[in-house]
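Suppose a colleague, Dr. K., hands you the sequence of a protein chain of 133 amino acids and asks what its three-dimensional shape might be. Before reaching for any lab equipment, you can write down a predicted structure in token form. Begin with the sequence itself:
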Amino acid sequence: MKISTRGRYAVRIMVELSRIQENEYVSLKELAEKQEIPFKYIEKTISLLVKNSMIESRHGKGGGYRLVRAPEDYPIGEILRITEGDMAPVACLSCNGQGCDRRENCKTLPMWKEFNELITGYFNSKTLRDLII
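The predicted structure, expressed as tokens, is then:
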């Protein structure tokens, strides 16, 4: 399993947003500069985060983006699932995977399930708060 650039950028954006005051907004330009993320990537990633109600936007002077919840209420796993989609290490465990004909007799499936649980548990146990302390 490999986390894409989009997933890594999303976590960095969310960490940056978690550093601002509760009623402040950060512009795309400022986010891009502070995190050294190309503007085209930040636009795409931000729109995905807004669409999934992870952050909110405000137009006009003093506008920009901010979190909608407290940093401790954002598991990293949630951010990664939004940007990466299914994070299952093998196709037969993916949300839209149909499994394979060998599922009933597969000797490796328990290992993949355990690995998937480790990954999921790890990312769900970390929050934005953990990354900004």
